[in-house]
Design a protein that fits this description.
single chain, 16 helices, 73% helix, globular
């Protein structure tokens, strides 16, 4: 009895610390608004209302965690802080879109709560393993037939007058599939001997992954392809203990990039710009060179919110928001963002280790790895370590599809990691 009381007291203490952390996200937004009011750029129209809306939304998410999954790890405050950074820089870089971003945070929190509920009932979600895989292929097919091409890639579908980036939904569906598949077949990968002899067990994974990656090549979305290939490679390496999967995943990404370079004009332009941005600094290399100047200008502590030149970077709010953070908040702010993603990944993997059964463990781990891979890809692209991909930085970049799906995945992860075994 005493142990039960102590556990409840400890849980209440953790939740109060979470509430304080959520409050810090709101405090950051308030400070950002004060800074923008004093900067030459000014702030977004109705910024105070947007901050109140943000505060109410994330408070509702915190209440949902306290009621539904009181023992869940404190990952929501980390995501909320990243979302606060994202909203602050949307107010700074695209003030006309700040209201939309605040609305997407609210929708994202609703998706987070739905994910919590679904994660707590992961034993039911597991039944949809192969359905999720088929739906992913169906969404890809619909995108190929009815999608809109932007910047050389066909990624968007109009749904009820709203543009939806379908690749974000595909990531979520493939996480559900991969968790169910590994919960059932992980032992096959761990057995010694050549894998090809167990081809019957590998067939569903091969069919889905080859179909998905082939469709992404056809849609000219090599950024999402790289993320999904890396996700599959890491998860299979974890399941089997065979580092060869990591080598195979890297080889697949490089081979696809070479094919894309040879056959796709926009991929060739991105690679050439990555290698030689200063050959045409006012043309094709303009985005990359301006981002490089932003990193150089930021120093350790930054030039101050609203005082940088990051708004000269094309598509900065979606593709290069990390460069904007580095310029205006400096190396200190950029490092804080990287550490926040490290907390999401490490905390997610720890939550996975504590989950009640294999499916919940793989589900929570897949989400953690997806967040880490996606953040690494776009941060590396901003730093010019790899070519840019057009992938969004989770919770930070402007965009509704990414924000809603990532919050839903976070809820799924927390619900699965704290739900009961069935």
């Amino acid at each position: 009895m005493l142990s039960g009381v102590a556990e409840r007291v400890q849980t209440v203490g953790v939740r109060w610390r979470d509430a304080l952390s959520v409050g810090m996200a709101v405090g950051f937004l308030l400070l950002a608004e004060l800074a923008l009011e004093r900067a030459p750029t000014g702030s977004a129209p109705g910024a105070e209302r947007l901050i109140v809306q943000f505060a109410v939304s994330i408070a509702a998410g915190h209440v949902a965690v306290s009621l539904l999954t009181p023992a869940a790890p404190p990952l929501l405050p980390v995501a909320c802080m990243l979302a606060a950074v994202g909203l602050a820089f949307t107010m700074r870089l695209a003030p006309e879109a700040a209201a939309a971003q605040a609305n997407w945070v609210s929708v994202g929190i609703a998706a987070f709560v739905a994910g919590l509920v679904a994660g707590r009932r992961a034993h039911l979600l597991r039944r949809w393993t192969y359905t999720a895989g088929v739906l992913a292929l169906a969404v890809l097919g619909a995108t190929a037939l009815f999608g809109t091409t932007i910047n050389g890639a066909r990624l968007w579908i109009d749904v009820a007058g709203q543009s939806v980036q379908t690749t974000e939904l595909i990531k979520a569906l493939l996480v559900v599939f991969l968790a169910g598949y590994l919960a059932r077949e992980a032992g096959v990968f761990a057995q010694p001997g050549p894998l090809w002899r167990r081809w019957r067990f590998l067939l569903p994974l091969l069919v889905l992954w080859v179909g998905t990656l082939g469709a992404l090549v056809a849609l000219r979305d090599l950024g999402t392809l790289a993320i999904l290939a890396a996700l599959a490679a890491v998860m299979l390496a974890m399941a089997s203990g065979r580092p060869g999967f990591l080598v195979a995943g890297a080889a697949l990404i490089v081979a696809t990039a070479l094919i894309g370079y040879a056959t796709m004009g926009h991929v060739r332009t991105r690679v050439d710009t990555w290698l030689h941005p200063f050959d045409d600094p006012l043309g094709s290399g303009y985005q990359t060179t301006q981002a490089s100047f932003a990193f150089a200008n930021g120093g350790v502590t930054g030039v101050g919110l609203g005082w940088g030149m990051a708004d000269t970077i094309p598509a900065v709010a979606t593709d290069y928001v990390f460069a904007a953070v580095a310029e205006e908040l400096g190396m200190a702010g950029a490092t804080a963002v990287v550490l926040a993603f490290a907390l999401l990944v490490v905390g997610g993997l720890q939550a996975a280790a504590q989950a009640g059964d294999a499916y919940r463990r793989w589900l929570a781990a897949s989400v953690a790895v997806l967040f880490g891979v996606q953040a690494a890809v776009i941060i590396a692209g901003n730093l010019r370590l790899v070519p840019t991909t057009g992938v969004t930085l989770p919770f930070v970049s402007y965009g509704g599809s990414s924000l809603v799906v990532n919050f839903a995945l976070l809820g799924l992860q927390l619900g699965a990691s704290s739900g009961r075994h069935r």
